[in-house]
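Q: what sequence does this backbone want?
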């Protein structure tokens, strides 16, 4: 399996990340374990989660995803095979939110305990906290890196000006630099990333681990009309916004490329991202072993220039 560096670090990952938001939400512990086992057997290694996953589900408090990953790791022989990425900053309730130093230093201990590990490979600011000085947030991460509890830091949902400012401050003060960015990025959501963030990430060597890579399942091709939205109550609202002429044009292009390669729409959509020079590893989730097979297939799918051009044209904004 091809390996790519996370930013300018010495940590390498396969070109597809598993999105752990489904653990403890869409799938139970047993199914999560089987998917993680098969994910690693396929030669993939980057698992992305967050402390807040999956607080939104009825009966959950947050931390469910990290807890399941931790139980899986505790079975032994797995920790050195995977790169664990988690996040801090979204609202965990009871005032636990944001990127102030004292909160980060508390939150990381909770994540380490749930993950049953002594270090996090990539610790990410889940949202930009404009109420906290960037220097304070980076100082917290510096403490964690020096303590060996965190190897790298990354940013999620940052605008280019704030990402650049944070990295400039890091250089000036000798603090850790954000080595990765998590933006929303897919064939249907291109403009927000490509106009400003992509040029910066390419120029600065910032790794890109995009989320919603399959646009909440729309790019799998299973949602082609409003009648299909009932297939997923959790995702139907977002998918509905893609049911328009541009969305249908993208699905048609995916169908055509998939047919040429005897593949699937989901695999082609991910392969398009993997082929993008700015992208390190798109994030995608699976709730069954069959879905996971489609994700793995994307890492082995070599799109031609003609394939990429057709997808670029169909998804032009």
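A:
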């Amino acid at each position: 399996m091809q390996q790519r560096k996370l930013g300018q670090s010495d940590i390498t990952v396969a070109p597809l990340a598993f999105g752990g938001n489904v653990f403890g939400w869409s799938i139970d512990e047993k199914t999560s374990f089987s998917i993680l086992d098969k994910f690693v057997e396929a030669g993939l290694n980057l698992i992305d989660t967050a402390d807040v996953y999956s607080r939104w589900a009825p009966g959950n408090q947050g931390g469910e995803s990290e807890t399941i990953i931790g139980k899986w790791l505790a079975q032994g022989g797995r920790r050195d095979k995977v790169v664990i990425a988690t996040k801090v900053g979204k609202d965990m309730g009871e005032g636990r939110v944001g990127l102030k130093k004292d909160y980060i230093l508390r939150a990381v201990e909770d994540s380490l305990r749930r993950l049953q590990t002594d270090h996090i490979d990539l610790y990410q600011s889940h949202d930009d906290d404009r109420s906290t000085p960037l220097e304070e947030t980076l100082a917290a991460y510096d403490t964690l890196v020096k303590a060996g509890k965190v190897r790298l830091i990354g940013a999620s949902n940052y605008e280019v000006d704030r990402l650049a400012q944070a990295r400039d401050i890091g250089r000036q003060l000798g603090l850790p630099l954000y080595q990765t960015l998590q933006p929303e990025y897919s064939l249907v959501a291109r403009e927000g990333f490509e106009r400003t963030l992509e040029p910066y990430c390419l120029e600065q060597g910032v790794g890109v681990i995009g989320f919603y890579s399959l646009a909440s399942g729309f790019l799998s091709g299973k949602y082609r009309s409003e009648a299909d939205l009932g297939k997923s109550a959790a995702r139907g609202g977002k998918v509905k916004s893609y049911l328009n002429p541009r969305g249908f044009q993208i699905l048609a292009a995916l169908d055509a490329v998939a047919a040429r390669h005897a593949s699937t729409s989901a695999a082609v959509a991910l392969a398009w991202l993997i082929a993008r020079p700015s992208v390190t590893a798109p994030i995608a989730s699976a709730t069954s072993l069959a879905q996971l097979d489609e994700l793995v297939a994307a890492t082995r799918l070599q799109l031609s220039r003609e394939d990429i051009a057709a997808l670029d044209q169909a998804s032009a904004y």
